[in-house]
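Intended use. Records like the one below are meant for learning the mapping from a protein sequence to its folded structure. Do not use them to infer anything beyond what is encoded.
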Amino acid sequence: MLELRHRRLWIAASLGLVALVAWGSLQTSVGSPTPQGFDKVEHFATYLVLAMWFTGLVPRARWWRVVAGLLGLGLAMELGQFLMQAGRLADPADMFANTAGIAAGMLLAWLGTGGWALKVEAWLPS
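Structure written out for the chain above:
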């Protein structure tokens, strides 16, 4: 992790974000119909945001860990959906959308959003 003054806050927010994604991926009680294919947009956008979030918190030399961790999260969610057999379906196309979102997030990080947390902390009072 980058040398951040509010390290505990960033870690707590990161854990909350991952928990929210896990809940959204595995919950079955809030099922609302989505237009055909729109769930792929949701997968893409979610993993793009996650990639941008975590590349803002870790040094560039460790971005490969962000990619590995997010791929692992996406795979775990798809496996969880398959194993639960509770109305959620594991779909290889979802994993493709997750991977595309990660790639887009990494590209944006490389183009300039990486390390954003340092800029945010510069604005915050000590």
